[in-house]
Design a protein that fits this description.
Order of helices and strands of chain B: EEHEEHEHHEEEEEEEEE
Distance between the termini of chain B: 39 Å
CATH superfamily of the largest domain in chain B: Cyclophilin-like
Strand content of chain B: 25-35%
Largest interface: A-B, 39 and 46 residues
Oligomer: heterodimer
Number of strands of chain A: 22
Structural class of chain A: alpha+beta
Strand content of chain A: 25-35%
Helix content of chain A: 10-25%
CATH architecture of the largest domain in chain B: Beta Barrel
Structural class of chain B: alpha+beta
Number of domains of chain A: 2
Largest sheet of chain B: 7 strands, mixed, barrel
Chain lengths: ~350, ~240
């Protein structure tokens, strides 16, 4: 066991893993990371068998230190990062040593960055997950001065690695599958909503993200007197006169507004990451098309692991590692020479 | 638009929804509890969980183990196998008795609700405590029970504007149902009473107390019983 100290916390840091599925009958939305793909990328970069709990950082990071050598994966929204002032790569692993300070600044694209220590964060477990669920007061935002217990890094000497994180950080098209209420909208409204250019509103949090557009709202013709019914993460709910909101990790589980359909899991990272003002479009798929894209997190992780590459770094950015005995007695002692020397 | 009979619909890549009505209805509430109880008694192959809402049952399945077509066909068969809308409520597994205070500061909108329902406050309290309420569904927020159904005069719509915040333990009424807020919340339902009972409390060893289908009786007390574990003087009788 080690620990990670938050010397200075940005305004919205919280511990997140993949959340708590399976509590719908208790009214509990699954919660978990807004961009689950970023946690899977971290597990791939660190070559872990499963996702481990990480720090989710909305818009900006903070300053961090550790009390034992540990690899840290930096994934999700690219943020300006440096170790003791030397620039650190994003969508990559970085080795942090005791005494060093990892500084993470604002996002240069996207919204949610993730700091994943290779041993995971060991904050208290509640119902099988360490995710903070802010809406119901489980866990909470992290503050400057907090020290979090971490698991041991299984391989601190492993070479640094990177992954191509793709282009989900500046909006784009969200694919929707039809849901129980898609039929409440008439064909003209469905056509118009798919032809409309939206932007991600400033009104957004872990519960939901509003979409803005110029022009008339999108009423559901047959929604009068509708009974409240199930809501899933990814549902596009039309509130009031017909203003779209995409429901996210900490959404309510039952609601009375009509829903256009459900953003497929593959596209949830794109809406989670879209920064305020980013352009977004909605595209309805057929049920068969959506079902054909179903996959498991285990399969996603396997596929990401194949895309991980060694990190070739500018030698000037690499601190003097040779002065550190990383895990005495467990290595040949020359691992760093063999693996880290450019 | 009235009731269309059971519809089998997709909800998410791993869900099939059986909807008994698009609008709130007493017969749909009974159908949902009966159908969900039957489904839970014999989950189809590849099913993960069956969850009731007020008018529908969601069956979540593992698409790696079974196809949507197979699950949907099985749901069509079961939904059509009997007249679920005429089904009696399945007997409750447990009965809760929950102390509550009505009107006054504890329920500042009881008088307003009485005026809208055409009944006296005293009559409403009598009916609220004489009805063997059932937990029809749990949702919106963690652990919030939808309790019903109350007599037809209780069919009062939600107020048009939201009350920005009501305290935890608030008992609120609309559309022949009551809800009990586990935590402070905004709501469009009218506040008619209050209890120290917290159906959800994250810090409690048992965070969620109620299950769909449970019976619940409210019992009038003079003062709200507030305790650290959010039981609020409630008792639970196991019936089967």
């Amino acid at each position: 066991m080690g620990s990670l100290t938050i010397l200075r916390a940005g305004p919205a840091l919280s511990v997140q893993d993949l959340g708590r599925p399976g509590h719908l009958s208790e009214g509990l939305s699954p919660g978990g990371a807004m961009d689950r793909l970023a946690l899977l990328e971290a597990a791939a970069l660190l070559d872990l068998p499963d996702v481990v709990p990480a720090i989710e950082m909305a818009s900006t990071g903070g300053r961090f230190s550790v009390d034992a050598p540990m690899r840290i994966a930096l994934t999700g929204a690219p943020m300006k990062a440096a170790v003791d002032g030397a620039p650190a790569p994003w969508a990559a692993t970085v080795l942090l040593l005791p005494g060093q300070v990892l500084e993470i600044g604002g996002a240069t694209a996207g919204t949610y960055g993730y700091l994943t220590p290779a041993g995971g964060i060991r904050s208290p477990d509640w119902l099988g997950s360490r995710s903070a669920h802010l809406v119901i007061g489980v866990g909470g935002l992290l503050a400057s001065g907090d020290t979090l217990t971490t698991g041991d890094d299984p391989a601190p000497q492993a070479p640094a690695r990177r992954i191509d994180a793709g282009s989900r950080f500046n909006g784009g098209t969200l694919r929707l599958m039809p849901g129980p209420q898609t039929g409440l909208f008439d064909a003209a409204t469905l056509e118009r909503i798919q032809a409309t250019g939206f932007t991600r509103s400033a009104q957004a949090n872990r519960q939901g993200i509003r979409l803005d557009h110029d022009g008339a709202p999108f009423p559901a013709a047959a929604a009068k007197g509708l009974a409240s019914d199930f809501i899933l993460t990814g549902d596009v709910q039309l509130i009031g006169e017909g203003i779209p909101f995409v429901l996210m990790a900490e959404c309510q589980t039952i609601g009375g507004y009509p829903r256009l359909g459900t953003v497929i899991p593959d596209d949830l990272p794109r809406i989670a990451q879209a920064p305020a003002g980013a352009p977004l479009r909605l595209a309805l798929m057929t049920l068969d098309q959506a079902d054909a894209l179903w996959t498991t997190d285990a399969a996603r992780l396997r596929s990401l692991k194949k895309r991980v590459q060694p990190l070739i770094r500018d030698p000037r950015d690499i601190p003097d590692l040779l002065g550190y005995q990383l895990i005495g007695g467990m290595t040949r002692g020359d691992d760093l020479d063999r693996k880290e020397r450019p | 638009m009235g009731e269309l009979g059971p519809e089998v619909l997709p909800l998410g890549q791993d869900g099939v929804l059986v909807r008994f009505s698009r609008v709130p209805s007493a017969s749909a509430a009974g159908a949902v509890l009966a159908f969900a109880a039957d489904l839970r008694g014999s989950l189809p192959d590849g099913a993960v969980e069956a969850v009731p809402s007020l008018t529908s049952v969601l069956l979540r399945f593992d698409p790696g183990a079974v196809s949507r077509a197979t699950v949907a066909a099985e749901m069509e068969r079961r939904a059509g196998s009997r007249d679920w809308l005429a089904a009696p409520l399945p007997p409750p597994a447990r009965r809760w008795t929950v102390p509550a205070v009505f009107g006054g500061e504890a329920g500042p909108q009881l008088a307003e609700f009485a005026a809208l329902s055409g009944k006296s406050e005293a009559r409403l309290v009598e009916e609220a405590t004489a009805t063997d309420l059932r937990v029809l569904a749990i949702g919106f927020t963690a652990g919030l029970p939808y309790l019903g159904l109350l007599p037809p005069d209780w069919d009062v719509p939600r107020q048009p504007q939201l009350t920005p915040q009501v305290p935890a333990g608030t008992i609120a009424a609309a559309v022949r149902q009551l809800v009990i807020f586990p935590a402070d919340s905004a709501t469009g339902w009218r506040r008619i009473g209050r209890t120290g009972f917290r159906p959800f409390l994250a810090s409690r060893s048992e965070p969620f107390l109620l299950r769909p289908g449970d019976a619940l009786r409210l019992r009038v007390v003079a003062e709200v019983v507030e305790d650290a574990d959010g039981i609020g003087g409630a008792t639970c009788e196991v019936l089967e």
